[in-house]
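WARN retry 2 of 3 for item q-0093 after timeout on previous attempt; input resubmitted unchanged.
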Amino acid sequence: MKNFLKIMLCIMGSLLAVIVVFGFCISYTVNYKKTICDTSVSSDGKYELTLQAVGEPDWPFGSASGRLILMEGKDKISQTDFELHNDGGSITSNCWKVTWYEDYVEVILSGEEQFDEQVILYFDGTKEIQQLTDIAVDYPSGEELDESRVITEQSFDVDLNGWGEVRFVSYLPTYDTLWEDVSFVLAKDNQIVYHFPAYFENNSTENDSVGMFDSVEAVGFHDIDGDGAKDVIVIVNYVTGAGSQGMIPRKTIRIFGSQNDGFVIQHDLIDELMKNMKEDDISISAICDYVTLIETDEIYDGYRTIYQQYFADEGCDFMISYSASGNSRVILNENEKIIEILVYDRLSENEKCELYVWYRSKKKVDGSWNISEAEMLDIFAYNVSTKDVVSSGKTSWSATGNEKYYEVTGEK
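OK item q-0093 returned
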């Protein structure tokens, strides 16, 4: 009898141990087991980011626990835990989007029952986390896109900053009023989620001299201010209807700069571009080149300084243009017979000055001209450090310049 009781106790003890171990295994799997779902490596191979699932999603339709681990070689930089609300689904490689930058890595976490979440992990160990809220809440809900107004050839599917995958739509006027302007919207699933700000008051050109809307010529998505977010560039054509040239479309520029959860019109930059770009040269690529020239290039500073010191008081123009090879130049004066331009040449021998050449060229009957046939009027040296400009007095490459020019440039 005693042996029987011992056997039964052993059996019950063993079953209890099995149950405890089994329960522990289930608990570990559900709550603690770490599963690598995906990894991403920086372009230089220096950093690695791992996406882990921690346990299993809460039953039946609960959140899933996850973890991001940033490594530099064998050293852990940071660890970030998160909860993903994905309708009870597990964490997989489809739940994240990774973008590597010079100083950090950006992760967008997406789930069916949550707004996208942005996680920025800096290589110094700091991090930023924010929810990319549904930006459309600030705008009329349930507003459907009117496909009859969509300018198909100038509407594009684009991954646009915090909006994710959206359709950028160039939207025709309703023509309820004669002077109504074109508009631009973002749409998802045929619903308008964002209206770009109107350039003219009440979105009407009636009180402006630009004329009536004719067409959208081009659209571009570029980060022109270097903040890591795409800005929107649009070229719009208008006709005035006045005079013999009134029905010829005239180009205008729109730049919508990314800001917070939307876009703002860059009026000052637009004015600068419209004032200083030749209309025939206006294109998306030329606009980007010019903005780069303005913001990051000391060559532009040289153009501006030379113009202000030598040409502004003479009533000359300042129009940025580009040659067929993409090199910049400033048109100072142009009519049916001649054109005068300022062209960047090179860095001086002592690497202290940027050199610019002033040319004048006669035009042919058809209006064409060639810089190789142009007359040299002067060479200017712009001292990058002092911002001073020195005129050489040279009217040919072989001519002798003044002493001051050779002194500041180190030329021989």
